[in-house]
Design goal:
Length: 159
């Protein structure tokens, strides 16, 4: 079992990952999606609204069709289940993304936290730890939290 985990970690972080994988499976999209899976799984099984929000974010922000998004989410769920910490995912993102893109990842994490209209201290703590590992300042993390939170609490103009 340890060998399998070691091979998985090498596959995820290795710059010479096999080119037969699709949708950036060994890079940013997989790492970010695994973080997202971790966030929505913190308070038990993800709710339908959290799953819908995850699909929406993956499809729109990563520009994936629903089938490819499903494959990515499946792979990320497996990766997250085998992960020992957040670092194996955040390190991939740190190597591959610029400051602005890492801010977007943290914003997406907040969107998932707020998806079910309940923010737990566990969710806040994981976003804080991930943001810290992504070199996002506390000020920026809190600013993103408030921005996403205010969008969630704003009345819907369509109603």
């Amino acid at each position: 079992m340890l060998d399998r985990l070691r091979h998985f970690i090498v596959d995820v972080i290795s710059p010479e990952a096999p080119e037969t994988r699709s949708f950036d499976e060994t890079g940013c999209k997989l790492a970010a999606t695994a973080l997202f899976i971790h966030i929505i799984s913190l308070d038990g099984a993800p709710s339908d609204v959290e799953i819908r929000k995850l699909h929406e974010l993956i499809e729109t922000r990563f520009g994936l069709d629903p089938g490819t998004a499903n494959k990515l989410i499946t792979s990320a769920t497996l990766a997250e289940g085998e992960a020992v910490d957040l670092y194996q995912f955040t390190s991939v993102l740190m190597r591959s993304l610029n400051d602005e893109d890492r801010l977007r990842i943290v914003e997406m994490m907040w969107e998932l936290v707020y998806a079910d209209d309940h923010v737990s201290e566990f969710e806040e703590n994981v976003v804080w730890r991930a943001a810290d590992l992504l070199a996002i300042s506390s000020r920026d993390r809190i600013k993103l939290k408030h921005r996403v939170g205010s969008r969630r609490s704003a009345p819907d103009p369509a109603t």
